[in-house]
Design brief:
Length: about 270
């Protein structure tokens, strides 16, 4: 019982359905037999997904696992994999130092840090061409939704700026131990062709966050709360944040940059 509580505290719900594990594994593209792609599994647990990844000849599998009990289990059951298993926190990992030539990411992501995992992927978008992750269903819906949806939000915009996102399939509660209280879903992110935005990218993040900070209000009011009064109007001001596409937010960011006095643009 204490071990189960510990897993819950880590946000971990271990997948027990082998067919779903195979399906998740097959959803990730790889390299070739001659040039296998590096793949990092985040949260290997007891190796339910790991075992199928290790069967592929087009990938070299690495793992990130923070739970000492799981690490010990994996060392005992997959000794050939053990040298590539990193005991530690994925969120603190130096991906560039370890995978300078790029790495695909996959995993049954702990619910309590799934959004943080996606933010880390955004930060390392030049290194991560693809990600397949199982997350809480509401998170999967949120990041895959187009503009105009109530679920569309900050993470939706920031991920869709750099990745094409597919909601692959829903996963029920009974295939986990311990069973979560919500449904899960698997999503796939594939790097799009955007290499840079036509605006200040740090300011873009600030504008997106400010816009959704009071998402029920018109953008005029949401932005004013962070940037102050511009003394001018933009055509998006009567709209709400959820109505704007990534391209719209790029346009709005450039307008904010052009209409703020030099040195007054918040960067934090």
């Amino acid at each position: 019982m204490d071990q189960v509580r510990a897993k819950k505290a880590l946000g971990q719900h271990f997948l027990t359905d082998l067919n779903i594990a195979r399906k998740i594994c097959a959803s990730l593209s790889g390299g070739t037999f001659e040039a296998p792609a590096a793949v990092l599994e985040v949260g290997c647990g007891m190796g339910v997904l790991t075992q199928f990844l290790l069967q592929r000849c087009d990938v070299v599998v690495y793992g990130a696992e923070i739970d000492a009990e799981s690490v010990e289990y994996l060392h005992g059951h997959y000794p050939d994999f053990a040298p590539r298993l990193i005991e530690g926190d994925f969120l603190k990992m130096d991906l560039r130092g370890r995978f300078g030539s790029g790495v695909r990411v996959i995993g049954n992501f702990p619910y309590n840090i799934s959004s943080q995992i996606f933010f880390k992927i955004i930060e390392n978008r030049d290194l991560v061409p693809e990600c397949v992750g199982m997350v809480q269903r509401e998170v999967a819906v949120r990041i895959a939704e187009p503009p105009g949806s109530r679920e569309y939000g900050i993470l939706s915009v920031l991920l869709q700026a750099w990745y094409d996102i597919e909601y692959l399939f829903t996963v029920g509660e009974k295939v986990f131990n311990p069973p979560p209280k919500v449904k899960s879903a698997v999503v796939r992110l594939r790097r799009n062709g955007v290499r840079s935005l036509d605006c200040d990218e740090q300011l873009f993040v600030k504008v997106v966050k400010a816009s959704f900070g009071q998402r029920r209000k018109m953008l005029r009011n949401s932005l004013r709360a962070v940037f102050g009064d511009f003394g001018a109007e933009h055509r998006f001001f009567p709209m709400r944040a959820e109505q704007l596409s990534v391209a719209d937010f790029v346009e709005l960011t450039q307008w904010v940059a052009d209409n703020m006095p030099d040195g007054d643009i918040p960067r934090g």
